[in-house]
Design goal:
homodimer, mainly alpha, Multidrug-efflux Transporter Regulator, Chain: A, Domain 2, 2 domains, two-stranded antiparallel sheet, disordered C terminus, DNA-binding
DNA sequence: CTTTGACCTCAATATTGGTTGAGGTTGTAC
DNA sequence: GTACAACCTCAACCAATATTGAGGTCAAAG
């Protein structure tokens, strides 16, 4: 036997409720709305009302931010979610899979950086011309300003 | 027999030279100076002159930024370098070792995040209450706003 | 009813990490 | 000795990601 709680189903959320349940400030919710990341409708008295789906959306936004995706890109990705119906698990999976690549890249970059840094710690090579961490900007300067390789 | 190149030893650098050799814009060098990350003295005609050590310092700044250290913290760390003499390999090593910790933490955090995301991709759990990625903000909301755990 | 907390809008402010431009000076190459 | 690139200062601006505040409205409890 399954009891359905009227609090959990069908009831629109106020901005304060969304803020409390999502851990995001009211001002941030306004901001996300202005940027097109979440949608609302208005009550008779012009107050924002949120579909419960917004909680999932906000959770996804926060995860994406942790991955390092800028809000603009998050907005683009979210805008590809189906219009009119609630996203399914499959929809969310597609997003996750997409961002996993970014995450992997970032982990890879940082790992490479750490390995180079380890070499520097081992040999003190931040003080040596041949150091791979500091050298690209120096010996290749004849190729013009800015980083090379 | 070792030839010492007068271009490489003892000659002060202009801001343009530092910019070209470090791959950092002149405006950024001014900015770093204002923030106390690098030092200069002035020529008779009020133009900046840089000790060659500044190249190493700038390289270190750029590495630290890649690690994700904000300029303020970089400034703090650099301010602990010895005053009056050029930093030794040992000095730079201490810095590297310090920042290695941050880097490892960040790699760890992102790796944990990736593992959680993998679970989400596998099970579609971004749509499920129990999901470790989206849940903290929801079921723990009675502890007050903001992330928990 | 009235009060009080939650909500509204819009503009200003904050932080980080710089870049751009105006208006003027210096230094070097011819 | 003059032209032109490189330099100077200072203020304004940029983008991202919000927060804060002023001034006003709404809604639910007593």
């Amino acid at each position: 036997m399954t009891l359905i709680n009227a609090d959990d189903i069908g009831k629109a959320l106020t901005v304060g409720e969304v803020a409390e349940r999502s851990g995001v400030a009211v001002s941030a919710l306004h901001f996300y709305e202005k940027k097109g990341l979440i949608q609302t409708w208005r009550s008779a008295g012009n107050q924002r009302r949120y579909h419960r789906d917004v909680l999932r959306r906000v959770a996804v936004i926060k995860v994406a931010q942790r991955i390092g995706i800028p809000l603009g890109e998050i907005a683009d990705a979210l805008s590809e979610l189906p219009d009119g119906r609630s996203p399914t698990a499959r929809d969310w999976k597609r997003l996750s899979a997409k961002w996993r690549g970014h995450l992997n890249e970032r982990i890879h970059d940082l790992t490479v950086l750490r390995d180079q840094l380890d070499q520097c710690i081992g040999c003190g090579c931040l003080s040596i011309k041949a150091c791979r961490l500091r050298n690209p900007y120096d010996t290749l300067s004849e190729e013009g300003p800015g980083p090379h390789i």
